[in-house]
Amino acid sequence: MSPILIQTFAFMACTFVAGLLLGWVIWRFEGSSKQALTSLSSEVDFWRSNLEQSRIELANEKTAVEALREEKANLKKRLASLEK
After folding, report:
1. pLDDT tens per residue across all 84 residues of the chain
2. CA distances from 65 to 24, 37, 50, 55 (A)
3. How many Å apart are CA 80 and CA 61, to the nearest integer?
4. How many Å apart are CA 80 and CA 74, to the nearest integer?
5. Residue 30 and residue 68: Cα distance in Å, rounded?
6. CA 65, 67, 71 angle in degrees (round to 5)?
7. In angstroms, how far is CA 46 from the centroid of its own chain?
């Protein structure tokens, strides 16, 4: 075999291996970025639902506090009327 033919096959083999390696690297990082994006999306959904649940609980607590304030005012009025 001539040296030029050997060099050509060597370069072709190196190019093939480099292409496989580059394809694997691109595939690997693309998969991890999709996983990170999916993870980030699910985390954002978790915090949004947590925020919504907290808002609902806050509204319930405000309603309960308002009811207790009204009851306190009514009890003070009744106590004041009983003291007279």
Report:
1. 788 899 999 999 999 999 999 998 888 887 666 677 777 788 888 899 999 999 999 999 999 999 999 999 999 999 989 887
2. 61, 41, 22, 15
3. 28
4. 10
5. 57
6. 115
7. 6
